[in-house]
Design brief:
Elements (H helix, E strand, L loop, with lengths): L7 H6 L4 H28 L1 H12 E6 L6 E2 L5 E14 L6 H12 L3 H8 L6 E8 L1 H10 L4 E10 L7 H4 L1 E2 L5 E2 L1 H5 L1 H5 L3 E6 L13 E3 L6 E4 L3 H18 L3 E8 L5 E7 L19 H4 L9 H10 L8 E3 L4 E3 L5 E3 L8 E3 H7 L2 H11 L1 H10 L28 H8 L8 H12 L3 E3 L4 E5 L8 E2 L4 E4 L3 H16 L14 E10 L5 E14 L6 E8 L7 H19 L16
Parallel strand pairs: 2-10
Antiparallel strand pairs: 1-8, 2-3, 3-4, 3-5, 6-7, 8-9, 10-18, 11-12, 11-23, 13-16, 14-15, 17-20, 18-19, 21-22, 22-23
Helix pairs in contact: 4-5, 4-6, 10-19, 12-14, 12-18, 13-18, 14-16
Protein backbone atom coordinates (compact mmCIF):
# COMPACT_ATOMS: atom_id res chain seq x y z
CA UNK A 1 0.00 0.00 0.00
CA UNK A 2 1.53 3.33 -1.12
CA UNK A 3 1.72 6.17 1.41
CA UNK A 4 -0.33 9.14 0.76
CA UNK A 5 1.67 11.79 -1.07
CA UNK A 6 2.56 14.81 1.12
CA UNK A 7 1.44 18.20 0.08
CA UNK A 8 4.09 20.37 -1.62
CA UNK A 9 4.00 23.00 1.16
CA UNK A 10 4.88 20.41 3.80
CA UNK A 11 7.87 19.12 1.81
CA UNK A 12 9.22 22.64 1.42
CA UNK A 13 9.11 23.21 5.19
CA UNK A 14 11.43 20.21 5.87
CA UNK A 15 14.00 21.28 3.27
CA UNK A 16 17.13 23.25 4.75
CA UNK A 17 18.64 25.80 2.36
CA UNK A 18 22.19 24.77 1.29
CA UNK A 19 23.52 28.34 1.57
CA UNK A 20 22.66 28.62 5.26
CA UNK A 21 24.42 25.34 6.07
CA UNK A 22 27.53 26.43 4.26
CA UNK A 23 27.56 29.77 6.13
CA UNK A 24 27.35 28.08 9.53
CA UNK A 25 30.09 25.67 8.53
CA UNK A 26 32.37 28.53 7.46
CA UNK A 27 31.80 30.36 10.76
CA UNK A 28 32.64 27.18 12.67
CA UNK A 29 35.86 26.66 10.68
CA UNK A 30 36.86 30.30 11.25
CA UNK A 31 36.21 29.98 15.01
CA UNK A 32 38.31 26.80 15.18
CA UNK A 33 41.07 28.58 13.24
CA UNK A 34 41.10 31.53 15.61
CA UNK A 35 41.35 29.22 18.60
CA UNK A 36 44.21 27.38 16.98
CA UNK A 37 45.99 30.61 16.12
CA UNK A 38 45.60 31.82 19.70
CA UNK A 39 46.90 28.53 21.09
CA UNK A 40 49.93 28.57 18.81
CA UNK A 41 50.55 32.28 19.53
CA UNK A 42 50.44 31.83 23.30
CA UNK A 43 52.15 28.46 23.66
CA UNK A 44 54.68 28.68 20.83
CA UNK A 45 55.30 32.17 19.51
CA UNK A 46 55.01 34.13 22.79
CA UNK A 47 55.72 31.37 25.23
CA UNK A 48 59.03 32.84 26.44
CA UNK A 49 57.66 36.34 26.99
CA UNK A 50 54.52 35.14 28.70
CA UNK A 51 56.51 32.77 30.87
CA UNK A 52 58.70 35.71 31.93
CA UNK A 53 55.60 37.76 32.70
CA UNK A 54 54.19 34.98 34.85
CA UNK A 55 57.42 34.63 36.77
CA UNK A 56 57.65 38.39 37.17
CA UNK A 57 54.17 38.39 38.69
CA UNK A 58 55.39 35.90 41.27
CA UNK A 59 58.79 37.53 41.77
CA UNK A 60 58.78 40.09 44.56
CA UNK A 61 61.49 42.49 45.67
CA UNK A 62 61.70 43.26 49.38
CA UNK A 63 63.90 45.95 50.87
CA UNK A 64 65.67 44.84 54.04
CA UNK A 65 66.54 47.87 56.20
CA UNK A 66 70.05 48.26 57.57
CA UNK A 67 70.62 48.70 61.27
CA UNK A 68 71.39 52.34 62.09
CA UNK A 69 74.68 52.88 63.89
CA UNK A 70 74.85 54.06 67.49
CA UNK A 71 76.29 57.32 68.80
CA UNK A 72 78.38 57.07 71.96
CA UNK A 73 80.31 59.69 73.92
CA UNK A 74 84.00 59.68 74.86
CA UNK A 75 83.21 57.51 77.90
CA UNK A 76 81.22 54.94 75.93
CA UNK A 77 77.81 56.19 77.06
CA UNK A 78 75.10 55.54 74.44
CA UNK A 79 73.55 58.83 73.39
CA UNK A 80 71.56 57.47 70.42
CA UNK A 81 70.55 53.86 69.88
CA UNK A 82 67.82 51.64 68.41
CA UNK A 83 65.00 49.69 70.04
CA UNK A 84 62.14 47.59 68.63
CA UNK A 85 58.85 49.44 68.42
CA UNK A 86 55.43 49.28 66.81
CA UNK A 87 53.15 51.54 64.86
CA UNK A 88 49.40 51.36 65.40
CA UNK A 89 46.82 51.60 62.61
CA UNK A 90 43.06 51.21 62.36
CA UNK A 91 41.00 49.53 59.63
CA UNK A 92 38.06 51.88 59.91
CA UNK A 93 35.13 49.70 58.88
CA UNK A 94 36.25 46.98 61.32
CA UNK A 95 36.23 49.18 64.45
CA UNK A 96 32.72 48.69 65.89
CA UNK A 97 32.72 51.26 68.70
CA UNK A 98 34.99 54.14 67.70
CA UNK A 99 34.39 56.20 70.83
CA UNK A 100 35.25 53.30 73.13
CA UNK A 101 38.36 52.58 71.08
CA UNK A 102 39.45 56.22 71.33
CA UNK A 103 38.94 56.25 75.12
CA UNK A 104 41.00 53.07 75.53
CA UNK A 105 43.85 54.11 73.23
CA UNK A 106 44.27 57.74 74.27
CA UNK A 107 46.51 57.25 77.35
CA UNK A 108 48.59 54.64 75.52
CA UNK A 109 49.47 56.50 72.32
CA UNK A 110 49.60 60.08 73.59
CA UNK A 111 46.71 61.51 71.54
CA UNK A 112 43.50 63.05 72.84
CA UNK A 113 40.22 61.15 72.71
CA UNK A 114 38.71 63.74 70.40
CA UNK A 115 41.70 63.55 68.05
CA UNK A 116 41.60 59.75 67.86
CA UNK A 117 37.84 59.61 67.40
CA UNK A 118 38.05 62.14 64.60
CA UNK A 119 40.68 60.01 62.87
CA UNK A 120 38.54 56.87 63.24
CA UNK A 121 35.59 58.62 61.59
CA UNK A 122 37.39 59.80 58.46
CA UNK A 123 34.78 59.29 55.71
CA UNK A 124 36.98 58.75 52.67
CA UNK A 125 39.66 56.43 54.09
CA UNK A 126 39.87 52.68 54.55
CA UNK A 127 42.56 52.84 57.25
CA UNK A 128 44.47 55.45 59.25
CA UNK A 129 47.83 55.53 61.03
CA UNK A 130 47.26 56.50 64.67
CA UNK A 131 50.77 56.56 66.16
CA UNK A 132 54.35 55.45 65.57
CA UNK A 133 57.30 54.28 67.63
CA UNK A 134 55.22 52.89 70.45
CA UNK A 135 57.18 51.49 73.37
CA UNK A 136 57.06 47.73 74.02
CA UNK A 137 55.06 48.44 77.18
CA UNK A 138 52.42 50.46 75.34
CA UNK A 139 52.26 47.85 72.57
CA UNK A 140 51.70 45.06 75.07
CA UNK A 141 48.86 46.95 76.75
CA UNK A 142 47.20 47.60 73.39
CA UNK A 143 47.42 43.92 72.51
CA UNK A 144 45.63 42.98 75.73
CA UNK A 145 42.74 45.30 74.82
CA UNK A 146 41.90 43.20 71.71
CA UNK A 147 40.09 46.01 69.90
CA UNK A 148 38.69 44.85 66.54
CA UNK A 149 40.24 46.68 63.58
CA UNK A 150 43.27 47.92 65.55
CA UNK A 151 46.54 46.61 64.08
CA UNK A 152 50.13 46.74 65.41
CA UNK A 153 53.05 46.52 62.96
CA UNK A 154 56.74 46.31 63.97
CA UNK A 155 59.06 49.13 62.89
CA UNK A 156 62.58 50.22 63.92
CA UNK A 157 62.80 53.09 66.38
CA UNK A 158 65.58 55.52 67.27
CA UNK A 159 65.75 56.64 70.87
CA UNK A 160 67.82 59.15 72.80
CA UNK A 161 68.04 57.79 76.34
CA UNK A 162 68.72 61.14 78.00
CA UNK A 163 66.04 63.22 76.30
CA UNK A 164 67.15 66.82 75.75
CA UNK A 165 70.75 66.01 76.65
CA UNK A 166 73.12 67.33 73.92
CA UNK A 167 70.15 67.48 71.54
CA UNK A 168 71.64 70.12 69.23
CA UNK A 169 74.78 68.04 68.86
CA UNK A 170 72.86 64.82 68.18
CA UNK A 171 69.97 65.99 65.98
CA UNK A 172 67.27 63.36 65.38
CA UNK A 173 65.92 60.82 62.90
CA UNK A 174 62.44 61.03 61.40
CA UNK A 175 60.00 58.13 61.22
CA UNK A 176 61.76 56.81 58.11
CA UNK A 177 65.04 56.67 60.09
CA UNK A 178 66.56 59.51 58.06
CA UNK A 179 68.92 61.80 59.96
CA UNK A 180 68.11 65.47 60.46
CA UNK A 181 70.34 68.16 61.94
CA UNK A 182 73.40 67.65 64.13
CA UNK A 183 75.33 64.41 63.89
CA UNK A 184 72.30 62.44 62.71
CA UNK A 185 72.04 64.71 59.68
CA UNK A 186 75.75 65.29 59.06
CA UNK A 187 76.68 61.61 59.33
CA UNK A 188 73.44 60.18 57.92
CA UNK A 189 75.15 58.16 55.17
CA UNK A 190 77.56 56.50 57.60
CA UNK A 191 75.04 55.96 60.38
CA UNK A 192 72.25 54.79 58.08
CA UNK A 193 74.22 52.12 56.24
CA UNK A 194 72.96 50.55 53.00
CA UNK A 195 69.60 48.70 52.82
CA UNK A 196 69.63 45.11 51.56
CA UNK A 197 67.40 43.55 48.91
CA UNK A 198 65.79 40.13 48.53
CA UNK A 199 64.25 39.12 45.20
CA UNK A 200 62.47 35.75 45.03
CA UNK A 201 59.58 33.87 43.40
CA UNK A 202 56.67 33.48 45.80
CA UNK A 203 53.59 31.31 45.95
CA UNK A 204 50.04 32.51 46.54
CA UNK A 205 50.64 32.72 50.28
CA UNK A 206 53.72 34.87 49.86
CA UNK A 207 56.25 32.13 50.69
CA UNK A 208 59.49 31.94 48.74
CA UNK A 209 59.54 28.98 46.33
CA UNK A 210 62.67 27.14 47.32
CA UNK A 211 63.57 25.64 43.94
CA UNK A 212 63.10 28.87 41.99
CA UNK A 213 65.96 31.32 41.36
CA UNK A 214 66.32 34.12 43.94
CA UNK A 215 68.85 36.79 44.89
CA UNK A 216 69.86 38.12 48.30
CA UNK A 217 71.86 41.30 48.83
CA UNK A 218 72.52 41.58 52.54
CA UNK A 219 72.14 45.01 54.17
CA UNK A 220 75.27 46.83 55.29
CA UNK A 221 74.65 48.07 58.81
CA UNK A 222 75.50 51.64 59.68
CA UNK A 223 78.73 52.49 61.46
CA UNK A 224 78.89 53.50 65.11
CA UNK A 225 80.43 56.87 65.85
CA UNK A 226 82.37 57.81 68.99
CA UNK A 227 82.40 61.44 70.08
CA UNK A 228 84.99 63.70 71.67
CA UNK A 229 82.06 65.01 73.72
CA UNK A 230 82.32 63.96 77.37
CA UNK A 231 78.91 63.30 78.94
CA UNK A 232 80.20 64.35 82.38
CA UNK A 233 81.35 67.71 81.00
CA UNK A 234 78.15 68.07 79.00
CA UNK A 235 75.94 67.42 82.00
CA UNK A 236 77.88 69.94 84.09
CA UNK A 237 77.69 72.76 81.56
CA UNK A 238 74.01 72.13 80.86
CA UNK A 239 73.19 72.44 84.55
CA UNK A 240 75.36 75.55 84.92
CA UNK A 241 73.79 77.13 81.83
CA UNK A 242 70.25 76.42 83.05
CA UNK A 243 70.97 77.94 86.46
CA UNK A 244 72.67 81.01 84.98
CA UNK A 245 69.89 81.70 82.49
CA UNK A 246 67.32 81.46 85.27
CA UNK A 247 69.36 83.69 87.58
CA UNK A 248 69.90 86.36 84.91
CA UNK A 249 66.44 86.02 83.28
CA UNK A 250 68.18 85.58 79.92
CA UNK A 251 66.43 84.51 76.72
CA UNK A 252 68.98 81.79 76.05
CA UNK A 253 72.65 81.02 76.01
CA UNK A 254 75.56 78.81 74.98
CA UNK A 255 78.51 77.19 76.73
CA UNK A 256 81.30 75.52 74.74
CA UNK A 257 84.26 73.60 76.15
CA UNK A 258 87.07 72.88 73.69
CA UNK A 259 90.40 71.12 74.08
CA UNK A 260 92.73 74.09 73.53
CA UNK A 261 95.43 72.01 71.84
CA UNK A 262 93.52 69.60 69.60
CA UNK A 263 90.30 71.44 68.70
CA UNK A 264 88.20 68.57 70.07
CA UNK A 265 84.82 69.65 71.46
CA UNK A 266 84.34 68.32 74.98
CA UNK A 267 80.98 69.96 75.62
CA UNK A 268 78.47 72.10 73.71
CA UNK A 269 75.28 73.25 75.45
CA UNK A 270 72.56 75.56 74.14
CA UNK A 271 69.29 76.90 75.42
CA UNK A 272 66.54 76.84 74.17
CA UNK A 273 66.59 73.13 73.37
CA UNK A 274 64.35 70.20 72.40
CA UNK A 275 63.80 66.49 73.00
CA UNK A 276 64.83 64.48 69.90
CA UNK A 277 62.49 61.69 71.01
CA UNK A 278 59.57 64.09 70.54
CA UNK A 279 60.70 66.04 67.47
CA UNK A 280 57.15 66.17 66.10
CA UNK A 281 56.12 68.36 69.04
CA UNK A 282 58.51 71.15 67.98
CA UNK A 283 56.47 73.80 66.16
CA UNK A 284 59.34 76.15 65.24
CA UNK A 285 61.92 74.44 63.01
CA UNK A 286 64.58 77.01 64.00
CA UNK A 287 64.65 75.29 67.40
CA UNK A 288 66.54 72.43 65.74
CA UNK A 289 69.40 74.72 64.68
CA UNK A 290 72.52 74.57 66.83
CA UNK A 291 73.18 78.15 68.06
CA UNK A 292 76.81 77.30 68.82
CA UNK A 293 77.50 76.98 65.09
CA UNK A 294 74.52 78.61 63.37
CA UNK A 295 73.83 81.76 65.41
CA UNK A 296 76.08 84.67 64.53
CA UNK A 297 76.55 87.60 66.89
CA UNK A 298 78.85 90.55 67.50
CA UNK A 299 81.40 89.23 70.02
CA UNK A 300 82.14 92.60 71.62
CA UNK A 301 85.21 93.00 73.80
CA UNK A 302 86.13 89.30 73.81
CA UNK A 303 87.39 90.10 70.31
CA UNK A 304 90.07 92.41 71.75
CA UNK A 305 92.18 89.35 72.59
CA UNK A 306 92.40 88.57 68.86
CA UNK A 307 93.06 92.20 67.97
CA UNK A 308 95.88 92.42 70.53
CA UNK A 309 97.42 89.11 69.38
CA UNK A 310 97.54 90.42 65.81
CA UNK A 311 99.09 93.73 66.86
CA UNK A 312 101.79 92.04 68.94
CA UNK A 313 102.57 89.39 66.30
CA UNK A 314 102.89 92.08 63.62
CA UNK A 315 105.26 94.05 65.81
CA UNK A 316 102.93 97.03 65.88
CA UNK A 317 102.75 97.05 69.70
CA UNK A 318 104.23 95.30 72.73
CA UNK A 319 102.63 94.61 76.10
CA UNK A 320 104.35 97.75 77.44
CA UNK A 321 103.56 100.07 74.51
CA UNK A 322 101.87 103.26 75.74
CA UNK A 323 98.64 104.72 74.44
CA UNK A 324 97.08 107.95 75.68
CA UNK A 325 93.32 107.95 75.18
CA UNK A 326 92.85 111.63 76.03
CA UNK A 327 90.53 113.45 75.39
CA UNK A 328 88.49 110.25 75.85
CA UNK A 329 87.00 109.90 72.39
CA UNK A 330 87.92 109.31 68.77
CA UNK A 331 86.22 111.44 66.15
CA UNK A 332 85.42 109.91 62.78
CA UNK A 333 85.43 111.88 59.49
CA UNK A 334 81.62 112.14 59.63
CA UNK A 335 81.81 113.84 63.02
CA UNK A 336 80.60 110.86 65.09
CA UNK A 337 82.60 109.87 68.13
CA UNK A 338 83.70 106.55 69.59
CA UNK A 339 84.36 106.32 73.34
CA UNK A 340 85.26 103.72 75.92
CA UNK A 341 82.56 101.85 77.82
CA UNK A 342 80.52 104.34 79.87
CA UNK A 343 82.76 107.15 78.60
CA UNK A 344 85.74 106.18 80.77
CA UNK A 345 88.99 108.09 80.18
CA UNK A 346 92.16 106.24 81.24
CA UNK A 347 94.89 108.56 79.97
CA UNK A 348 98.27 106.84 79.45
CA UNK A 349 98.03 103.07 79.55
CA UNK A 350 100.02 100.03 78.45
CA UNK A 351 98.65 97.42 76.07
CA UNK A 352 98.28 95.04 79.01
CA UNK A 353 96.15 97.69 80.72
CA UNK A 354 94.15 98.10 77.52
CA UNK A 355 93.05 94.47 77.94
CA UNK A 356 92.62 94.77 81.71
CA UNK A 357 90.39 97.83 81.35
CA UNK A 358 88.80 96.65 78.08
CA UNK A 359 89.56 99.97 76.40
CA UNK A 360 87.86 100.53 73.05
CA UNK A 361 90.19 103.40 72.21
CA UNK A 362 93.19 101.24 73.07
CA UNK A 363 92.02 98.49 70.71
CA UNK A 364 91.54 101.09 67.97
CA UNK A 365 95.12 102.27 68.59
CA UNK A 366 96.33 98.69 68.00
CA UNK A 367 94.62 98.32 64.60
CA UNK A 368 95.76 101.78 63.56
CA UNK A 369 99.36 100.81 64.32
CA UNK A 370 98.93 97.43 62.63
CA UNK A 371 97.50 98.85 59.44
CA UNK A 372 94.33 98.11 57.59
CA UNK A 373 95.60 95.42 55.18
CA UNK A 374 97.62 93.47 57.73
CA UNK A 375 94.80 93.59 60.28
CA UNK A 376 92.19 92.14 57.92
CA UNK A 377 94.57 89.56 56.48
CA UNK A 378 95.24 88.30 59.99
CA UNK A 379 91.51 88.14 60.78
CA UNK A 380 91.08 85.90 57.76
CA UNK A 381 93.96 83.76 58.98
CA UNK A 382 92.14 83.35 62.31
CA UNK A 383 89.09 82.11 60.38
CA UNK A 384 86.87 85.09 61.14
CA UNK A 385 83.94 85.32 58.71
CA UNK A 386 84.39 81.72 57.51
CA UNK A 387 82.90 78.37 58.58
CA UNK A 388 85.23 76.38 60.78
CA UNK A 389 84.38 73.15 58.95
CA UNK A 390 83.29 71.39 62.13
CA UNK A 391 81.64 68.02 61.50
CA UNK A 392 78.15 69.21 62.43
CA UNK A 393 75.26 70.14 60.15
CA UNK A 394 74.12 73.74 59.67
CA UNK A 395 77.25 75.83 60.33
CA UNK A 396 77.19 79.54 59.40
CA UNK A 397 80.22 81.53 58.27
CA UNK A 398 79.78 84.80 60.12
CA UNK A 399 80.25 88.32 58.73
CA UNK A 400 83.54 90.11 58.05
CA UNK A 401 83.27 93.05 55.67
CA UNK A 402 86.61 93.63 53.93
CA UNK A 403 87.91 97.01 52.69
CA UNK A 404 87.20 96.15 49.04
CA UNK A 405 83.60 95.15 49.72
CA UNK A 406 80.38 97.23 49.72
CA UNK A 407 79.49 98.62 53.13
CA UNK A 408 83.03 98.95 54.41
CA UNK A 409 84.14 102.32 55.82
CA UNK A 410 86.55 103.78 58.35
CA UNK A 411 84.04 103.48 61.17
CA UNK A 412 83.73 99.74 60.55
CA UNK A 413 87.51 99.38 60.59
CA UNK A 414 87.76 100.89 64.05
CA UNK A 415 84.69 99.20 65.58
CA UNK A 416 85.88 95.80 64.35
CA UNK A 417 88.88 96.30 66.65
CA UNK A 418 86.61 95.89 69.68
CA UNK A 419 84.21 93.34 68.25
CA UNK A 420 81.35 95.38 66.79
CA UNK A 421 80.52 95.49 63.10
CA UNK A 422 81.91 91.95 62.82
CA UNK A 423 79.90 88.80 63.52
CA UNK A 424 80.97 85.25 64.27
CA UNK A 425 79.54 82.05 65.69
CA UNK A 426 80.39 80.99 69.24
CA UNK A 427 82.53 78.13 67.92
CA UNK A 428 84.48 80.48 65.62
CA UNK A 429 85.37 82.66 68.59
CA UNK A 430 86.35 79.69 70.76
CA UNK A 431 88.60 78.24 68.03
CA UNK A 432 90.27 81.61 67.38
CA UNK A 433 90.79 82.15 71.11
CA UNK A 434 92.35 78.68 71.41
CA UNK A 435 94.83 79.68 68.69
CA UNK A 436 95.72 82.82 70.66
CA UNK A 437 96.83 80.81 73.70
CA UNK A 438 97.88 77.34 72.44
CA UNK A 439 101.08 78.36 70.67
CA UNK A 440 99.41 80.11 67.75
CA UNK A 441 97.93 77.03 66.04
CA UNK A 442 94.44 77.31 64.57
CA UNK A 443 93.11 73.78 65.02
CA UNK A 444 90.29 72.16 63.09
CA UNK A 445 87.38 71.79 65.55
CA UNK A 446 85.79 68.34 65.55
CA UNK A 447 83.39 66.27 67.61
CA UNK A 448 83.65 62.75 66.12
CA UNK A 449 86.77 60.98 67.31
CA UNK A 450 86.18 57.59 65.73
CA UNK A 451 83.97 55.82 63.18
CA UNK A 452 83.59 52.11 63.86
CA UNK A 453 82.32 49.94 61.03
CA UNK A 454 80.28 46.87 61.98
CA UNK A 455 82.21 44.96 59.34
CA UNK A 456 84.81 43.13 61.42
CA UNK A 457 87.24 43.17 58.49
CA UNK A 458 87.20 46.96 58.31
CA UNK A 459 89.38 48.97 60.68
CA UNK A 460 87.97 51.91 62.61
CA UNK A 461 88.62 55.41 61.29
CA UNK A 462 90.17 57.59 63.96
CA UNK A 463 90.16 61.38 63.70
CA UNK A 464 93.58 62.92 64.22
CA UNK A 465 93.92 66.53 65.41
CA UNK A 466 94.59 68.75 62.41
CA UNK A 467 96.25 72.15 62.38
CA UNK A 468 94.63 74.46 59.84
CA UNK A 469 97.54 76.93 59.94
CA UNK A 470 99.93 78.78 62.24
CA UNK A 471 98.34 82.17 62.81
CA UNK A 472 100.73 83.76 65.34
CA UNK A 473 104.13 82.79 66.69
CA UNK A 474 104.64 80.73 69.84
CA UNK A 475 106.30 83.77 71.42
CA UNK A 476 103.26 85.95 70.75
CA UNK A 477 101.01 83.22 72.13
CA UNK A 478 103.07 83.02 75.35
CA UNK A 479 102.83 86.80 75.67
CA UNK A 480 99.06 86.67 75.25
CA UNK A 481 98.72 83.99 77.92
CA UNK A 482 100.51 86.26 80.39
CA UNK A 483 98.44 89.30 79.40
CA UNK A 484 95.14 87.44 79.70
CA UNK A 485 96.19 86.03 83.06
CA UNK A 486 96.85 89.62 84.16
CA UNK A 487 93.33 90.55 83.05
CA UNK A 488 91.99 88.13 85.68
CA UNK A 489 94.58 88.60 88.41
CA UNK A 490 95.77 92.23 88.26
CA UNK A 491 95.31 94.36 91.34
CA UNK A 492 91.74 95.59 91.58
CA UNK A 493 90.42 93.01 89.11
CA UNK A 494 86.79 92.06 89.61
CA UNK A 495 87.15 88.83 87.66
CA UNK A 496 86.13 85.77 89.71
CA UNK A 497 89.01 83.37 90.37
CA UNK A 498 89.19 79.59 90.19
CA UNK A 499 90.43 78.53 93.60
CA UNK A 500 93.88 76.95 93.38
CA UNK A 501 94.36 77.60 89.65
CA UNK A 502 95.49 80.33 87.27
CA UNK A 503 93.20 81.09 84.34
CA UNK A 504 93.13 83.82 81.71
CA UNK A 505 89.98 85.38 80.31
CA UNK A 506 88.36 88.27 78.50
CA UNK A 507 84.77 89.47 78.78
CA UNK A 508 82.46 91.07 76.26
CA UNK A 509 79.20 93.00 76.43
CA UNK A 510 77.89 93.52 72.91
CA UNK A 511 74.80 95.32 71.70
CA UNK A 512 72.25 93.45 69.61
CA UNK A 513 71.71 94.91 66.11
CA UNK A 514 68.17 95.97 65.21
CA UNK A 515 66.59 94.75 61.94
CA UNK A 516 65.74 98.41 61.27
CA UNK A 517 69.36 99.54 61.68
CA UNK A 518 71.31 100.60 64.73
CA UNK A 519 70.99 98.64 67.97
CA UNK A 520 68.12 97.54 70.22
CA UNK A 521 67.89 99.55 73.43
CA UNK A 522 68.87 97.67 76.60
CA UNK A 523 69.51 94.46 74.64
CA UNK A 524 72.95 92.88 75.02
CA UNK A 525 74.83 89.64 74.61
CA UNK A 526 77.00 89.13 77.68
CA UNK A 527 79.89 86.72 77.32
CA UNK A 528 83.26 85.65 78.66
CA UNK A 529 85.88 83.41 77.09
CA UNK A 530 88.71 81.92 79.13
CA UNK A 531 91.39 79.26 79.23
CA UNK A 532 93.27 77.29 81.83
CA UNK A 533 95.41 76.33 83.50
CA UNK A 534 97.66 79.17 82.32
CA UNK A 535 100.84 77.10 82.84
CA UNK A 536 99.62 74.32 80.54
CA UNK A 537 96.37 75.26 78.77
CA UNK A 538 93.96 72.36 78.54
CA UNK A 539 90.55 73.97 78.06
CA UNK A 540 89.06 76.92 76.26
CA UNK A 541 85.60 77.86 77.55
CA UNK A 542 82.99 80.30 76.27
CA UNK A 543 79.94 81.34 78.28
CA UNK A 544 77.46 83.42 76.30
CA UNK A 545 74.12 84.77 77.56
CA UNK A 546 71.51 86.15 75.19
CA UNK A 547 69.73 89.27 76.39
CA UNK A 548 70.04 88.93 80.20
CA UNK A 549 67.07 90.90 81.52
CA UNK A 550 68.69 91.62 84.89
CA UNK A 551 71.27 93.78 83.14
CA UNK A 552 74.98 93.75 83.86
CA UNK A 553 78.13 93.21 81.87
CA UNK A 554 79.62 89.99 80.59
CA UNK A 555 81.81 89.93 83.69
CA UNK A 556 78.88 90.29 86.07
CA UNK A 557 76.50 87.87 84.36
CA UNK A 558 78.72 85.25 82.69
CA UNK A 559 81.88 85.45 84.83
CA UNK A 560 80.57 83.36 87.76
CA UNK A 561 79.43 80.65 85.33
CA UNK A 562 82.92 80.48 83.80
CA UNK A 563 84.39 79.88 87.26
CA UNK A 564 81.93 77.05 87.91
CA UNK A 565 82.77 75.41 84.59
CA UNK A 566 86.51 75.48 85.34
CA UNK A 567 85.92 74.13 88.84
CA UNK A 568 84.14 71.14 87.30
CA UNK A 569 86.77 70.62 84.60
CA UNK A 570 89.71 70.59 87.02
CA UNK A 571 87.86 68.08 89.19
CA UNK A 572 86.68 65.81 86.37
CA UNK A 573 90.11 65.60 84.74
CA UNK A 574 92.06 65.40 87.97
CA UNK A 575 94.26 68.43 87.27
CA UNK A 576 96.32 69.26 90.39
CA UNK A 577 96.16 72.82 91.74
CA UNK A 578 98.94 75.26 90.90
CA UNK A 579 101.51 75.71 93.67
CA UNK A 580 101.53 79.47 93.08
CA UNK A 581 97.79 80.08 92.77
CA UNK A 582 96.51 82.29 95.56
CA UNK A 583 93.19 80.52 95.83
CA UNK A 584 91.43 83.79 96.61
CA UNK A 585 88.32 84.84 94.77
CA UNK A 586 87.60 88.44 93.93
CA UNK A 587 84.08 89.80 94.36
CA UNK A 588 82.49 90.16 90.89
Amino acid sequence: MQPYPQPRAVRAAYKTPRGRVMALFAIFILFIGLIGYRVISVQVVRSKNLSSYAIAERMQENVVPARRGEIVDARGVRLATNVPANRISAILDQVPDKHAAAVALSPLIGRSIVDIEQALNEPDLEWVLLARRLSPEASQQIETLVIPGIVLDPEPSRIYPFGQFASHVLGFTNYDMQGNYGLEGGYDDLLGGTPGKMVGERDGLGNVIGLSPSTWDAPVDGADIVLTLDSAVQRSIELILDATIKEQSAQGGTIIVQDSNTGAILGMANRKTFDPNAFTQVTDASTFLNPAISSIYEPGSTFKAITMAIGIDEGAVTPDSIHDDAPGYFELPDGSRITNFEGSVWGRETMTQVLERSSNLGAMHVVEKTGRDRFYQNLLEFGIGQPTGVDLQGEEGGILTLPNQPGWNDALFYTTAFGQGVACTPLQLVSAFSAVINGGRLMQPYIVSEVRSRNTDEAATVTQPEMVRQVISEETSATMRAMLQSVVEHEGSLYPRVEGYHIGAKTGTAQIPSPDGGYIDDATIASIVGFGPVEDPRFTVLVKLDWPKNGGTGLQTSGPALTKVFDELMLLYGIPPSDTASGTEAIP
